[in-house]
Fold this sequence. Notes:
Elements: H1 2-6, E1 9-10, E2 13-14, H2 15-49, H3 54-79, H4 86-120, H5 126-155, H6 161-177, H7 179-194, E3 202-205, E4 208-215, E5 219-224, E6 229-233, H8 234-238, E7 242-244, E8 251-259, H9 265-280, E9 285-295, E10 300-308, H10 313-334, E11 348-351, E12 354-357
Antiparallel strand pairs: 1-2, 3-4, 3-7, 4-5, 5-6, 8-10, 9-10, 11-12
Helix pairs in contact: 2-3, 3-4, 4-5, 9-10
Amino acid sequence: MIGDLLHRTYLGNTISTYLLFLLLFLAGVVVVRIVELIVLKRLSAWAKKTKTTVDDFLVEMTKKTVLPLLYYLVFYISVRVLYLGKSAKKAFDIIGITLLTVFVIRFMIALINYVLLRYWMRKEEDEAKKRTVKAIMPVVRVVLWGVGITFLLDNLGIKISTVIAGLGIGGIAVALAAQAILGDLFSYFAILFDKPFEIGDFIVIDNFMGNVEHVGIKTTRIRSLTGEQLVFSNTDLTNSRVRNYKRMERRRVLFRIGVTYDTSLENLKAIPGIIRGIIESIEDTLVDRVHFASFGDYSLIFEVVYYVLSSDYGKYMDIQQKINLRIMEEFGKRGIEFAFPTQTVYLESQVEGVPKEK
């Protein structure tokens, strides 16, 4: 009775064949669950104790990619004991290849992301590293998914050579039409990898200056000192001379002062020492030189060069203000007068043949 029941056929398979399929499937699921709950759990605990993060990454990716494939493999092997039509077999093959392609691509994307974060950019600051990887990964995903889909279509028997040739011709046309956009895209990667500036840096481009707020695929946005936002194409920036003041370790300052021509020789000799002493008494400064430089139209000109040991513009202005006030104070004590544009006019009159001045 039971034997007759087991030999009954439904949809081309006997009940005994269905039971065998079910038995194989359940046994396979149990094996995979044992691997998941025992083997992977122990590997995960062991990986947490090690200093390296490679083992943690591999265990995590095994859970996300290998385990789903194992479950499908169990189902695929089990279903092979059944008699299936050509359409059903082809459908299972397509599903298997598709899942394999998807999980392999996901694994490759995760692997590249991990390598970029942990090894290739390990010397960078965390925030800069995250921004760089975040910018690179969309391109990586597009490339990997493109290669993966091409591989999948080829394995499914679809002739893609004609499609690729058509895409190649179309790609050339698109590239010609979008040269500016592609130029900005490549410039974006140049900025990304070469790092002439980063978000937060104070930069000067020609007559424009400000803090970098955003570096995008096509444009870079800068907040100017007057408050408005300046938008530059990435190509403009890579083709320009960019001065990055945030990376300036010290600021060189040159200024000139002029004193009147009636300043005594004694005071003229003392002025370089006075200015040098003033600057040396102020913190975070380094004097380079102080000289009586030239005879001007209205004044005797002294040239001063010193360094502010900081890139902060506000600090530089505070120091320059202190220097200016101290110079005014010291010159006032010695009666040294600052020169300003003046003009003396001499008038001659002829009195009894003798020229006189008035």
